[in-house]
Amino acid sequence: MDDLILKIPHSERRKLLLENVITDAVAVNNNWQISYLMIVWKEYFEPTLEATCNPCLGRVLKNFKAMHPRMLEMEQEANLLG
Asked: Most buried among 17, 23, 24, 81, by the most CB within 10 A?
């Protein structure tokens, strides 16, 4: 999972965590958090993703929620080393 997370620049990962984007996201089209996650996913993982695809919203959110605990750990490790 680390290899996927590291595709997202540190500054972007930090923003996702500090602004609770992953935890506050809901897989509906009018939620700014899921819209932002879709932009990030499209930028770093799946450039051809259709951002308005309803099943895709749930899939992307599920993927980010799976990465979230490790992202938190990585941020804590970076803070200890930095």
From this structure: 17
